[in-house]
Amino acid sequence: MPLLPDVLVGHQTAGICGTAAFSTLGPGGLGKRVDAMNPRELPPLQLENLHLAQGHRTVLEHVDGDIKPHAITALIGANGAGKSTLIQAIMGELRPVNGKVTCRVPSERRAWLPQQLALDLTFPMSVEELVMTGSWPSHGALKGYCAAHYRKGRDIMARLGISHLAHRPLGELSGGQRQRALIGRTLMQEAELLLLDEPFANVDSDTVDILIRILRQMADDGTTIIVVLHDMDHLQRLADEVLMLNGGHARWMAPAALTQQQAPAQAVPFTLGGHHAGIA
Amino acid sequence: MLELLNAWFVAPFDYGFMRRAVVGGLALSLAAPPLGVFLVLRGMSLIGDAMAHAILPGVAIGFLLAGFSLPVMSIGGVMFGLMVALLAGAVSKMGGQREDAAMASFFIISLAAGVMLISVGGSSVDLTHVLFGSILAVNSTALALIAGISTLIVVILAVIFRALVVECLDPLFLRGQSRRNGWVHSVFLGLLVLNLTAGFQTLGTLMAVGLMMLPATAARFWSKRLEGLMGIAVVLAMTASTGGLLLSFHLDIPSGPSIILLAGAGYFFSALFGRYHSLAARLRRKTAPLSAETSM
Lengths: 280, 296
Fold this sequence. Notes:
heterodimer, A: alpha/beta, 9 helices, 20% strand, globular, B: mainly alpha, ABC transporter involved in vitamin B12 uptake, BtuC, 0% strand, Metal ABC transporter permease (chain B)
């Protein structure tokens, strides 16, 4: 497969594939999206007086707030507190009973990484093929991949440390390797809004380190990330903002507020006092 | 020796009906197995069976209206099959039941309705014909229809291939991209119905599923890659349909069952001697040393 010279990647890609999305591709992976760096832009995601129900059971009420752009927002709460319900609403899978979700990110730039169990990983597909499917939404169903796509895919796999697994079937991967491959797909997608549901469950600590570093890079490069977390340690290392769901209500706070009340590392404290940071 | 080969493999095709039958069989063998591979991968293997029964009332109504006219019976079959698929989908959404439960209910109703309709309007010979097919009675109109449908299926499958793969692996990823992507599943079910209607003339409504599922399940023992699965399944289906026809010609046995039984023999052979997960593979399995792992 012919490699394109570095300098030409941007124009060449746009010429071959006609996708502007690749014009920022640099040798290290994704470049910064210029349009995403404007500090006065509207929040990518706004929740207004949101009322969500599963069937007849109200799960969440009066959820308000703007998700900060280019930041990592952690979503925490006990089992059944409504984390998945909220994510469904954000992805447009669930219609709110009341209130609204305003999402300014076009749907092909939204990525959603479900818990690992939700995927059929016996499907005969290699790691590289999985990563490449990330380009599918912006690339369309018919066009073939061109050299620059494969290059980008290989860059992403190298960043995630899974280059040596490129041709391995998904079914033969460990939990951590699989999670890296799935994150690779969202990198390929160049997502501007990324939702992750417990990405560190069943994952080794090396992978956690790499993923935390990469998620942080993605946020710095302009991706808005919402992540469901259970582990206080991961939360401290990753989150810029915290949205805690408890008893049908949501409460914004700063990660620091959680540390001050540091309970045993794995339990999330639900009895926090009033000093949480609201978001304007 | 040459004479024997000639007598077995070439001479039968001097007959026009055998030539038409083999071409029809090969066309079906090209279109059906890839659909079967997707069904197996999605854990929907039995849906094919259900759909095969679902088209029966439509075929029966076509038969009552126009006799043994493949186009009319096919149109009836397609319409009824799609209706059942849509109804099953609607009922499962409405009642929170799983789609396979709704499908199971509908297909058994359809089977009974179809058998009833044909028995009322025709003879038991007609019933056997519809249920088990008669590949040796394929005329040129039927052949053109089978070839046309098979071509259409292969083309559409190529167009939606990538979407279908993504949908199998992670439906939420696909739906997350766009609301409109729900059509992939519907188009797939539509192709399934089309393929079954093309197959019933030659193999019968009950046997048409065989050419779709057996090569696909057998291929699982030979490949771990999607392209491999489809290629092997198509080759198996082509071998089975041609071989089955020849067997049926020489031994004077019904063509549909002999094609499917040959495919079934292929399945058992694969289960015993295939490369992956077969009995033989289990017996000869040795753990590879780490050095082999890293050099891959």
